[in-house]
Amino acid sequence: MNTTDHRGRPIVAVTGIGLVTPLGFGVEANWAALLAGRSGIRRITRFPTDHLRTTIAGTVDLPEEAGGEVLTSSDRVRLMAQRAAEEALAQSGLPSPFPGPLMLGMPPVELEWPGRFRLAAETGEDAPSYKALTEAAAGRDDLYRTTAFAGIGEQLAARFGTRGAPIAISTACATGASAIQLGVEAIQRGETEAAIAIGADGTVQPEALIRFSLLSALSTRNEDPTGASRPFEKSRGGFVMSEGAACLVLESLAHATARGATILGVLRGCGEKSDSFHRTRSNPDGGAVIRAMRNAIEDAGLTPADISYVNAHGTGTPENDKMETFGMRAVFGNDAPPISSNKSMIGHTLSASGAIEAAFSLLAIRDQMLPPTINHVEPDPAITLDVVPNVARPAKVVNVLSNSFGFGGQNVCLVLSGAPA
Questions:
Q1: What's an example GO cellular component term for this entry (predicted)?
Q2: pTM here?
Q3: Cβ(411)–Cβ(174) below 8 Å
Q4: Could you tell me which of 112, 270, 107 has the C-alpha nearest to residue 200?
Q5: CATH number for domain 12-109+148-417, candidates 3.90.180.10, 3.40.50.11290, 3.40.47.10, 3.40.50.1370
Q6: Residue 183 in contact with residue 336, Cβ under 8 Å?
Q7: What residues does each domain of the chain span?
């Protein structure tokens, strides 16, 4: 078996997958729900939603919150990432301590409103000054541990015994795919034989919800939670915030085969391109989106005709869906492969989305099934793609392009393929 690619680099295999989404815990539970076209979007009960324009989200109910305690986003990210990693590592069969680094994609961390209110109360002032808040926070190790960006990565690295400093990265909605790309490239450079790549997000909390709402980015179809996320559909009105985590255990193919591991698929190519156009909008010329897709396909040593299926970024915002359609036509012409959006069922898991969708892409190859884009009631005449509407479909799936397009024009695309013969 050839263990190097067309550029002489080590082929990167996937030997473990772990998943946590609003559809449930574990790979098989999630995949079954996805193929059944089941939505995980529901009304928010974690915090009061009175007077909010959007009152729905894709929330994950963690066992640690069963007693009524509401965790911070940081704790939620850590626990979901940990659960996904445990599943992926168990499947991979790699020992502990883990013989490689951790690449963690996660959201920016900040002190959330309840914590700020408690800190303000400690000052004893009705309208505390910044100086008073700073003094109240002095020496508070608990605040530091909660808000340190690298803290989650350090805790996970300690738990799984990974080598070297853990890498924690945030590239907006492309974050999960960026974490995978970092792991792939470290193996391709010969720096390690294995890596853990995780994308995780637990940002369904009041401040984040309000911020996205002020950007007019969120769906307000509150009366119909399961029908609210409508990528590529004429009546789409924004994305639905969500949370979750996915982990891929990556290994050089030579390392994985030498130890007799089951190969779940390979990360064949990675492509990225940023347009530096606007804090939230993509450049209307679509250049960065198109280049990221082409870069991934070229990096994989393939042509557009070799792509069987595209796992869409597919957020359900008017701008993203039209931009992705434009990019697909530019890259594939009139022979575009089927494309579908998992976000129609799980919502937009933000920093986790690129990793979750890469995992689903591998499962599509494994089972030769295309997950659907649900809630496709009325086609948009401006979107002339096969979006696999409403019902999963058997298909020959050899190579999958997984798209992740982030705010600020941060775009990462991955090409995933089946295990080498």
A1: cytosol
A2: 0.94
A3: yes
A4: 107
A5: 3.40.47.10
A6: no
A7: 12-109+148-417, 113-145
Q: What is the pLDDT of residue 226?
A: 98
Write the CA distances from 404 to 187, 191, 270, 271, 397, integer angstroms: 22, 26, 11, 10, 20
pLDDT of residue 281: 67
247 assigned to active site: no
Angle between helical axes of 353-367 and 175-188 (0-180°, round to 10): 70
| Residue (of 285, 264, 265, 263) closest to 276 by Cα position | 285
Q: Which of the residues 173, 247, 270, 413 is marked catalytic? A: 173
Catalytic residue list contains 313: yes
Check 247, 255, 270, 348 and give the catalytic one.
348
Tokens matching residue 147: 């808000």
255 is catalytic: no
**Rounded Cα–Cα distance for residues 103 and 57 (Å):** 27
Which of 255, 270, 313, 413 is catalytic? The answer is 313
Query: Is 106 in contact with 77 (CB distance < 8 Å)?
Result: yes
Q: Which residues does the chain have with pLDDT short of 50?
A: none
| Beta carbons of 153 and 105 less than 8 angstroms apart | no
pLDDT in tens, 50-74: 999 999 999 999 999 988 888 889 9
pLDDT at 237: 92
